[in-house]
Protein backbone atom coordinates (compact mmCIF):
# COMPACT_ATOMS: atom_id res chain seq x y z
CA UNK A 1 0.00 0.00 0.00
CA UNK A 2 3.00 2.27 0.53
CA UNK A 3 6.11 2.19 -1.63
CA UNK A 4 9.39 4.00 -1.01
CA UNK A 5 12.43 4.79 -3.09
CA UNK A 6 15.49 6.97 -2.72
CA UNK A 7 16.83 9.49 -5.23
CA UNK A 8 19.96 11.49 -4.49
CA UNK A 9 19.57 10.61 -0.84
CA UNK A 10 15.97 11.90 -0.74
CA UNK A 11 13.26 9.44 0.29
CA UNK A 12 10.10 9.37 -1.80
CA UNK A 13 7.08 7.93 0.02
CA UNK A 14 4.34 6.87 -2.38
CA UNK A 15 0.68 6.09 -1.75
CA UNK A 16 0.39 2.87 -3.72
CA UNK A 17 -3.23 1.82 -4.31
CA UNK A 18 -3.53 3.05 -7.91
CA UNK A 19 -6.52 0.87 -8.76
CA UNK A 20 -8.40 2.56 -5.91
CA UNK A 21 -7.03 6.03 -6.81
CA UNK A 22 -4.97 5.83 -3.60
CA UNK A 23 -8.17 6.19 -1.59
CA UNK A 24 -7.62 5.92 2.13
CA UNK A 25 -8.38 3.00 4.40
CA UNK A 26 -6.90 2.73 7.91
CA UNK A 27 -4.30 0.14 6.86
CA UNK A 28 -2.97 2.48 4.16
CA UNK A 29 -2.80 5.46 6.50
CA UNK A 30 -1.14 3.47 9.28
CA UNK A 31 1.48 2.20 6.83
CA UNK A 32 2.00 5.77 5.61
CA UNK A 33 2.64 7.01 9.14
CA UNK A 34 5.21 4.29 9.75
CA UNK A 35 7.04 5.00 6.48
CA UNK A 36 7.08 8.76 7.11
CA UNK A 37 8.59 8.28 10.55
CA UNK A 38 11.16 5.88 9.11
CA UNK A 39 12.02 8.27 6.28
CA UNK A 40 12.45 11.23 8.62
CA UNK A 41 15.12 9.33 10.56
CA UNK A 42 17.50 9.99 7.66
CA UNK A 43 17.56 13.68 8.55
CA UNK A 44 16.92 14.58 4.90
CA UNK A 45 13.73 16.05 3.36
CA UNK A 46 10.93 13.65 2.47
CA UNK A 47 8.70 13.68 -0.62
CA UNK A 48 5.09 12.44 -0.51
CA UNK A 49 3.45 11.43 -3.80
CA UNK A 50 1.01 8.91 -5.27
CA UNK A 51 0.98 6.11 -7.82
CA UNK A 52 -1.06 6.14 -11.01
CA UNK A 53 -3.42 8.92 -12.04
CA UNK A 54 -4.36 10.10 -8.55
CA UNK A 55 -2.54 11.56 -5.59
CA UNK A 56 -5.33 10.64 -3.17
CA UNK A 57 -9.08 10.40 -3.78
CA UNK A 58 -9.93 10.82 -0.11
CA UNK A 59 -11.75 8.10 1.78
CA UNK A 60 -12.30 4.72 0.13
CA UNK A 61 -16.07 4.87 -0.24
CA UNK A 62 -16.35 1.17 -1.06
CA UNK A 63 -14.61 0.40 2.22
CA UNK A 64 -16.97 2.72 4.10
CA UNK A 65 -19.98 1.15 2.36
CA UNK A 66 -18.93 -2.26 3.71
CA UNK A 67 -19.93 -1.16 7.22
CA UNK A 68 -23.46 -1.78 8.43
CA UNK A 69 -23.08 1.60 10.11
CA UNK A 70 -20.72 3.60 7.87
CA UNK A 71 -20.34 6.32 10.48
CA UNK A 72 -18.20 3.84 12.44
CA UNK A 73 -15.93 3.51 9.42
CA UNK A 74 -15.70 7.28 9.17
CA UNK A 75 -14.71 7.53 12.84
CA UNK A 76 -12.03 4.86 12.42
CA UNK A 77 -10.60 6.38 9.27
CA UNK A 78 -10.63 9.96 10.57
CA UNK A 79 -8.64 8.92 13.64
CA UNK A 80 -5.83 7.44 11.55
CA UNK A 81 -6.03 10.20 8.91
CA UNK A 82 -5.65 12.94 11.52
CA UNK A 83 -2.71 11.10 13.06
CA UNK A 84 -1.07 11.14 9.63
CA UNK A 85 -1.59 14.89 9.38
CA UNK A 86 -0.07 15.55 12.79
CA UNK A 87 2.81 13.22 11.91
CA UNK A 88 3.57 15.31 8.81
CA UNK A 89 3.44 18.67 10.59
CA UNK A 90 5.60 17.39 13.46
CA UNK A 91 8.34 15.82 11.34
CA UNK A 92 11.69 17.43 11.99
CA UNK A 93 12.62 17.42 8.31
CA UNK A 94 11.01 19.34 5.42
CA UNK A 95 8.15 17.52 3.71
CA UNK A 96 7.37 18.17 0.05
CA UNK A 97 4.12 17.09 -1.59
CA UNK A 98 4.52 16.03 -5.23
CA UNK A 99 0.92 15.93 -6.42
CA UNK A 100 0.88 13.62 -9.41
CA UNK A 101 -2.85 13.58 -10.18
CA UNK A 102 -6.31 14.14 -8.77
CA UNK A 103 -6.86 15.15 -5.16
CA UNK A 104 -10.24 14.99 -3.43
CA UNK A 105 -11.68 15.16 0.06
CA UNK A 106 -9.27 14.01 2.73
CA UNK A 107 -6.53 13.85 0.14
CA UNK A 108 -6.38 17.64 0.38
CA UNK A 109 -5.00 17.36 3.89
CA UNK A 110 -2.18 15.10 2.71
CA UNK A 111 -1.38 17.51 -0.13
CA UNK A 112 -1.49 20.71 1.96
CA UNK A 113 0.00 19.60 5.29
CA UNK A 114 3.56 19.40 3.85
CA UNK A 115 5.84 22.43 3.82
CA UNK A 116 5.87 22.81 0.04
CA UNK A 117 3.52 21.57 -2.69
CA UNK A 118 4.49 20.94 -6.30
CA UNK A 119 1.77 19.75 -8.68
CA UNK A 120 1.90 18.12 -12.08
CA UNK A 121 0.05 19.88 -14.92
CA UNK A 122 -2.54 17.13 -14.90
CA UNK A 123 -3.30 17.40 -11.18
CA UNK A 124 -6.72 18.57 -10.00
CA UNK A 125 -8.10 19.60 -6.61
CA UNK A 126 -11.65 19.31 -5.27
CA UNK A 127 -13.17 19.23 -1.80
CA UNK A 128 -16.04 16.79 -2.57
CA UNK A 129 -17.33 16.84 1.02
CA UNK A 130 -20.72 18.44 0.48
CA UNK A 131 -21.77 16.00 -2.22
CA UNK A 132 -21.56 13.36 0.51
CA UNK A 133 -23.16 15.54 3.16
CA UNK A 134 -19.91 15.64 5.14
CA UNK A 135 -17.75 18.36 6.68
CA UNK A 136 -14.04 18.91 5.95
CA UNK A 137 -11.42 16.84 7.71
CA UNK A 138 -7.69 16.20 7.60
CA UNK A 139 -6.99 19.80 8.53
CA UNK A 140 -8.34 20.98 5.17
CA UNK A 141 -10.63 23.55 6.80
CA UNK A 142 -7.52 25.19 8.26
CA UNK A 143 -5.19 24.66 5.31
CA UNK A 144 -7.67 25.98 2.73
CA UNK A 145 -8.58 29.13 4.64
CA UNK A 146 -4.91 29.75 5.40
CA UNK A 147 -3.85 29.49 1.75
CA UNK A 148 -6.77 30.79 -0.34
CA UNK A 149 -8.88 32.74 2.16
CA UNK A 150 -12.38 32.36 3.51
CA UNK A 151 -14.35 33.37 0.41
CA UNK A 152 -12.64 30.95 -1.95
CA UNK A 153 -12.71 28.18 0.64
CA UNK A 154 -16.48 28.59 0.90
CA UNK A 155 -16.72 28.59 -2.89
CA UNK A 156 -14.83 25.31 -3.21
CA UNK A 157 -16.94 23.67 -0.53
CA UNK A 158 -20.29 24.93 -1.84
CA UNK A 159 -19.66 24.16 -5.50
CA UNK A 160 -17.42 21.08 -5.30
CA UNK A 161 -15.53 22.87 -8.06
CA UNK A 162 -12.53 21.00 -9.46
CA UNK A 163 -9.48 23.26 -9.76
CA UNK A 164 -6.83 22.53 -12.35
CA UNK A 165 -3.21 22.70 -11.21
CA UNK A 166 -2.81 26.09 -12.89
CA UNK A 167 -5.93 27.43 -11.17
CA UNK A 168 -4.74 26.08 -7.82
CA UNK A 169 -1.42 27.86 -8.35
CA UNK A 170 -3.12 31.13 -9.34
CA UNK A 171 -5.24 30.95 -6.20
CA UNK A 172 -2.19 30.41 -4.01
CA UNK A 173 -3.15 26.88 -3.01
CA UNK A 174 0.12 25.32 -4.18
CA UNK A 175 3.70 26.50 -4.76
CA UNK A 176 4.58 25.25 -8.24
CA UNK A 177 3.23 23.54 -11.36
CA UNK A 178 5.50 21.47 -13.59
CA UNK A 179 5.12 19.14 -16.54
CA UNK A 180 3.82 15.73 -15.49
CA UNK A 181 7.01 13.95 -16.54
CA UNK A 182 9.17 16.39 -14.55
CA UNK A 183 7.30 16.18 -11.24
CA UNK A 184 9.55 13.91 -9.21
CA UNK A 185 12.75 15.28 -10.73
CA UNK A 186 11.70 18.78 -9.67
CA UNK A 187 10.61 17.62 -6.22
CA UNK A 188 13.92 15.84 -5.64
CA UNK A 189 15.89 18.82 -6.93
CA UNK A 190 13.99 21.20 -4.67
CA UNK A 191 14.42 18.93 -1.65
CA UNK A 192 18.12 18.30 -2.29
CA UNK A 193 18.89 22.02 -2.58
CA UNK A 194 17.19 23.12 0.62
CA UNK A 195 19.52 24.62 3.17
CA UNK A 196 19.91 22.42 6.27
CA UNK A 197 17.65 23.48 9.12
CA UNK A 198 17.67 22.10 12.68
CA UNK A 199 14.63 19.98 13.40
CA UNK A 200 13.73 22.08 16.43
CA UNK A 201 13.75 25.30 14.40
CA UNK A 202 11.62 23.80 11.64
CA UNK A 203 9.08 22.34 14.04
CA UNK A 204 8.78 25.49 16.12
CA UNK A 205 8.46 27.66 13.01
CA UNK A 206 5.54 25.54 11.79
CA UNK A 207 3.93 26.05 15.20
CA UNK A 208 4.51 29.81 15.08
CA UNK A 209 2.81 29.95 11.68
CA UNK A 210 -0.12 27.84 12.89
CA UNK A 211 -2.53 30.65 13.78
CA UNK A 212 -5.50 28.27 14.00
CA UNK A 213 -3.69 25.74 16.24
CA UNK A 214 -4.11 22.69 14.04
CA UNK A 215 -4.60 20.13 16.80
CA UNK A 216 -7.70 21.96 18.05
CA UNK A 217 -8.98 22.29 14.49
CA UNK A 218 -8.50 18.57 13.86
CA UNK A 219 -10.51 17.80 16.98
CA UNK A 220 -13.33 20.09 15.85
CA UNK A 221 -13.24 18.51 12.38
CA UNK A 222 -13.33 15.03 13.87
CA UNK A 223 -16.44 15.74 15.92
CA UNK A 224 -18.18 17.48 13.01
CA UNK A 225 -17.54 14.78 10.40
CA UNK A 226 -18.46 11.92 12.74
CA UNK A 227 -21.74 13.66 13.47
CA UNK A 228 -22.41 14.37 9.78
CA UNK A 229 -21.68 10.73 8.93
CA UNK A 230 -24.60 9.65 11.11
CA UNK A 231 -27.01 11.63 8.92
CA UNK A 232 -29.30 10.17 6.28
CA UNK A 233 -27.78 12.29 3.52
CA UNK A 234 -24.41 10.55 3.87
CA UNK A 235 -25.97 7.10 4.06
CA UNK A 236 -28.00 7.73 0.92
CA UNK A 237 -25.00 9.18 -0.93
CA UNK A 238 -22.95 6.13 -0.01
CA UNK A 239 -25.70 3.80 -1.20
CA UNK A 240 -25.88 5.69 -4.49
CA UNK A 241 -22.12 5.37 -4.89
CA UNK A 242 -22.23 1.65 -4.18
CA UNK A 243 -25.03 1.16 -6.70
CA UNK A 244 -23.06 3.05 -9.34
CA UNK A 245 -19.87 1.08 -8.62
CA UNK A 246 -20.98 -2.53 -8.02
CA UNK A 247 -17.56 -4.05 -8.73
Summarize the structure.
Helix content is 49%, strand content 17%. The protein contains eleven helices and ten strands.
The number of distinct helices, counting runs of at least 4 residues, comes to 11
- Helix amount, in percent? 40-55%
At the first level of CATH, the class is Alpha Beta
| Name given to the CATH homologous superfamily | 2-enoyl-CoA Hydratase, Chain A, domain 1
* Percent strand: 15-25%
State the oligomer.
single chain
Instruction: Return Rg in Å.
Output: 17 Å
The CATH topology corresponds to: 2-enoyl-CoA Hydratase, Chain A, domain 1
Number of domains: 1
- Average of pLDDT: 97
Shape: globular
Largest sheet: 6 strands, mixed
Order of helices and strands: EEHEEHHEEHEEHHEHEHHHH
- End-to-end C-alpha gap: 20 Å
Amino acid sequence: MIATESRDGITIVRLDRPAQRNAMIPALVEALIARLVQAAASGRPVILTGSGQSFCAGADLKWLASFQDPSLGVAELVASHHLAITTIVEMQVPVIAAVNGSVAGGGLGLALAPDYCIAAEGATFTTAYFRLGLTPDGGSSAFLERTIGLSRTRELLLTNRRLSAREAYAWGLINEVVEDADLLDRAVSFAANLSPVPGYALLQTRRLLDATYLRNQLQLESVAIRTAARGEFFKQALEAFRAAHPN
